[in-house]
Amino acid sequence: MIRIVLVDDQELFRGGVRVALDAQGDMEVVGEASDGAEGLAVIAGTRPDIVLLDMRMPVLDGLQTVRALFGPDGPQDPPRVIVLTTFALDAAAATAIRAGASGFLLKDATPAFLAAAVRAVHAGSSVLAPDELGQLFGLDVQAAPPPPPPPAFRTLTNRERTIFELAARGFSNTEIATREFVSESTVKTHVSSVLGKLGLRDRVQLVVYAHDNRLLQGG
């Protein structure tokens, strides 16, 4: 079962989301909270797999909550976070993804799309496709000249750089294995090595890293 905590200041919205998720055979809502401070306490007590987190709440908003979860004083193994917002290309949501969230959803998403997003994030993917992440993060970096590659990036082998670029462009492990004529387990090993060398948590952060540092050839 995918264990989920809902953090949103609108009780009616939480109730509707809970009904939709609890109807899924592989999901269970294990806690709710009406603000970020309460949410952190609920998360600590329930240790969910996924947190659905509203961006705009009293006491502690979504961005502050993400920073608390993924900052140096946060839990050792934080849950994956999907932030909820009312409009696309939300700058606060982009900042939350940079801080550790795995993507964002519009609050008017259908129950089927919401459930699919929860499953995708639980499996280690982002909610947004890499090209959408590129739009989100490209707004504030494209005007500036590309920075030199970070020192950690220069430690990657040629093979790892190839895997990095394909993963950052949204190719799955299976697709990368087919393109590179290697096994899927080899791809997983390379991806793990890349994440470790770059100090990244998951493939979502890899995509953010690639766009922030302008590392994708041809864009």
UniProtKB/TrEMBL annotation:
Keywords: DNA-binding, Phosphoprotein, Transcription, Transcription regulation. Residues 3-122 form the Response regulatory domain. Pfam families: GerE (PF00196), Response_reg (PF00072). InterPro entries: CheY-like_superfamily, NreC/VraR/RcsB-like_REC, Sig_transdc_resp-reg_C-effctor, Sig_transdc_resp-reg_receiver, Tscrpt_reg_LuxR_C, WalR-like. It comes from the Bacteria. Residues 149-214 form the HTH luxR-type domain. Gene3D superfamilies: 3.40.50.2300. The modification 4-aspartylphosphate is found at D54. This is Response regulator transcription factor. It comes from Frondihabitans peucedani.
